[in-house]
Amino acid sequence: MTEWWMDRIHGLTEGIQPLHKEAQTAAAAYLDTLTKPPGSLGKLESLAIQLAGITGLVQPRLSRKSVVVMAGDHGVCEEGISRFPSEVTPQMVMNFLNGGAAVNVLSRQAGADVHCVDIGVASELKHDNLWARNIARGTANMAHGPAMTKEQAALSICTGADVAAELVAKGTQIFITGEMGIGNTTSSAAIFAVLSGRRPAEVVGRGTGVTDERLLHKIAVVEQAIEINQPDANDPLDVLAKVGGYEIGGLAGLILGAAAHGCPVVIDGFISSAAALIAGALCPASLPYMIASHVSHEQAHVLLLQELGLQPMLQMDMRLGEGTGGVLCLHLVEAACRIMNEMATFESAGISGGTE
Fold first, then answer.
1. All domains in the chain, ordered by first residue
2. Active-site option among 78, 87, 322, 347
3. Cystine design at 250: which of 43, 112, 116, 160 (Cβ 3.0–4.6 Å)?
4. Is 322 part of the annotated catalytic residue set?
């Protein structure tokens, strides 16, 4: 008997279409008519062509921006892998909801809305602006068994996709991935290690800034989790269930949902990129919808972006998460759109040499 989630996820991924090649070709040609040497705006031009392919518009305008911060707790924190206790997760969620976190500040500057989703926080939270979508009060300790059931993993993906659909219905045109969950760099490293075939020592980083001694312990915990659970690298849902987190699954679903609705999605840091890896493994067609905002200070993020085949727009030595790097990248997205909509052509400006 087919499990319900197989049909749901298949329907979601089946709805993701290839980028509009004609729009990309037209955008590339239009860029060469603008008052500049061909290719002289570098990554902004590549971004403009990508946005044309995603939206089907040579001159897109993406004014409605949504940062989705998925929040969930991790049972593996019992192993002492973080500088901070799990209680920080719900405390930070309230900070997001009250507008006091870094992502709130940067989002206000960028004109983006912040939506915080409780998808797996261990504490009960109440706030008028909270998206209450709690699947379970945190994951189980992956060092001693699966982090969640396969059905819960699938439900996290479907929840993320549903959030994307609701926001699109309210006018969102571009998404930014954000997350909060003490211990989630450990789960993200485990996901990356399994799906890439790399050793945990290559991909486990310092997260919140742990000491050398605790870093070695963190590597050992990831090794133990993989050894005990034996996640199937050919089954991304199995990997998510055994060594992942609810917020990671939620972001994977958000990415797939955004792509299914023809919306670009800006990927933040290491945890968001691990979610992107899950999404890409489930549906490679979702990868062209992703924009890598920055390469973080987490040691393996550059390797993870390489695994995804994404080129980061920024390098700011950031390692906060929350969606902060993604929000900074929105200024570059806006710049690419404005170049296409506002810059003069050689012909309109009466400047010679545009066809040489």
1. 4-60+340-349 (1.10.1610.10), 65-331 (3.40.50.10210)
2. 322
3. 160
4. yes
